[in-house]
Amino acid sequence: MYVYNVFCCTEYPLESGKEEKMDKFVPTIKLKLTALVIATAVAGFTFAALGECAGGPDTQFANCSGSVAIYYTVKEGDTLYDIAGRYQVLLRELVKTNNLSGSLIRPGDVLKVPENTVADGNMSRGNIPREELMLLARLIHAEARGESFEGQVAVGAVIMNRLASPYFPKTIPEVVFQKSYRVYQFSPVGDGSINLEPDEEAFEAAKQALSGKDPTDGALFFYNPDISKDQWIRTLPVVTRIGNHVFATSS
């Protein structure tokens, strides 16, 4: 009978007469070896689980032992709207978590996916509540009906840019209904035209703005220079002009 070294393969011949005694210990050795193998496998699995989590090629995980932080690497064609929908998180929380100042993202950017903002059944695509999508479409329709489609998207983009800015409220309703010195920021709220039923083009413009389309390149304000009597807004740096609207940013 031969006994093998557990960690290599050396054979140790036993003296005659000791085989019977050794036979009594072999089952015990096998049992201990089996336990060692299982313990090692479990330990290896535990270390892998704590130190490395599986994910897609564009998704990274950190601190997998407790609260999981998920990071997403932006690809060509991605929008904040699409990423929010993919991970079932609120768009505004995605913006807030990453301290974004606008809706523009670039391939290669790494975004942290917020926790505990899973959408429910009342959410539209991109996790914007349906009533907020409707409100955005109403504002676009009231402010830019008669403008080109690009001009309508631009108005919606201003709302989204304000949503991402630290100087404005963090929800679409709060942005739309915000007052400054007791005057609504958007005149259709004050005159009631925001209650007009939006058409399909306004809805589509709202969806485009939610998807991250921004013809204004980050504007936070817009006005019609032929109508507006606000002298202060005319002092703001102009970004672009689309149709009858001038789009500006903060000074």
CATH topology of the largest domain: Arc Repressor Mutant, subunit A
Strand content: 5-15%
Strand order of the largest sheet: 3-4-5
| Count of DSSP strands | 10
Report mean pLDDT, rounded to a whole number: 75
**At the fourth CATH level, what is the homologous superfamily of the largest domain?**
Cell wall hydrolase SleB, domain 1
The geometry reads as: globular
- For the record, the count of structural domains works out to 3
Q: Could you give a quick summary of the protein structure above?
A:
The chain is α+β, with helices and mostly antiparallel strands. The protein is built from 8 helices and 10 strands. A hairpin with a 2-residue loop joins strand 9 (238-242) and strand 10.
Key descriptive features of the protein:
about 250 residues; alpha+beta; Membrane-bound Lytic Murein Transglycosylase D, Chain A; Arc Repressor Mutant, subunit A; 3-stranded antiparallel sheet; 10 strands; disordered N terminus
What does this structure look like?
This protein is α+β, with helices and mostly antiparallel strands and 251 residues long. It has three domains: 1-32, no CATH class; 59-113, LysM domain (Membrane-bound Lytic Murein Transglycosylase D, Chain A), CATH 3.10.350.10; 130-248, Orthogonal Bundle (Arc Repressor Mutant, subunit A). 40% of the residues lie in helices and 14% in strands. It contains eight helices and ten strands. It has helices at 19-51, 80-87, 91-97, 130-144, 149-164, 172-176, 187-191, 200-210, and strands spanning 2-4, 11-13, 59-62, 69-73, 110-113, 179-180, 183-184, 221-223, 238-242, 245-248. Strands 3-4-5 form a three-stranded antiparallel sheet, with no helix packed on it. A three-stranded antiparallel sheet has the order 8-10-9, with helices on one face. Strands 1-2 form a two-stranded antiparallel ribbon. A hairpin with a 6-residue loop joins strand 3 and strand 4 (69-73). Helix 5 packs across helix 8 (200-210). The longest helix is centred in the N-terminal third of the chain and has 33 residues, at 19-51.
